[in-house]
Design a protein that fits this description.
180 residues; 6-stranded antiparallel beta sheet; two-stranded antiparallel ribbon; S-adenosylmethionine decarboxylase
């Protein structure tokens, strides 16, 4: 059975020492990394000595802080961002200290119902290897406000958390409501 994701993407995360101010669409265009038209149409969120963030429609999003750079792409081919980062740090900024590299692949599946969601979950991440904890997670209803068991670091075993699980969509919604 082949299941196609509704959304997919890839992100490359670099840790090191970066100068966020230089990572701007026109800087990339001036070095032939993106077309000038793409630089002109970029959606710039912020350019500041501490952080730069922008996206170029149907190409990539870039966020640069002094200690972290993240580039992601949500349309194939995903290798485009690896090639772009290779040219930036291999050709233009080869002396930039990069201490860690992470590559994250993201896929989001829409399930018809809870039973279908459970089948997808079992295919991707079977619960059996997780023992009792895996069996307990099978009773979760997908409710983002459900409570979870967290380890008690005091050595008394698991306890119920009073912390609410909040998704990134919840955070984005709350942040946008602050401007109402």
């Amino acid at each position: 059975m082949r299941i196609e994701p509704d959304l997919s993407g890839t992100a490359v995360i670099l840790l090191g020492s970066f100068n966020p101010k230089i990572f701007q669409p026109f800087w990339l265009a001036s070095h032939g990394l993106i077309p000038a038209a793409a630089a002109e149409s970029a959606d710039i969120s912020v350019v500041h000595p501490e952080i730069t963030a922008f996206s170029i429609e149907d190409q990539f999003s870039l966020s640069v802080e002094r200690g972290r750079l993240s580039m992601d792409r949500n349309v194939a081919p995903f290798i485009v961002i690896a090639d772009l980062l290779g040219r930036i740090f291999g050709d233009l900024l080869p002396h930039t200290p990069i201490t860690r590299v992470g590559i994250n692949r993201m896929v989001h599946f829409r399930a018809r119902d809870e039973e279908h969601r459970e089948r997808i979950g079992q295919l991707v991440a079977p619960r059996e290897p997780w023992g009792d904890w895996g069996r307990r997670t099978s009773s979760a209803s997908g409710d983002p406000t459900r409570r979870i068991a967290v380890p008690n670091l005091g050595g008394k075993g698991p306890q119920r958390s009073t912390k609410r699980i909040v998704s990134s969509q919840d955070r984005a919604f709350k942040q946008n409501r602050a401007f109402d």
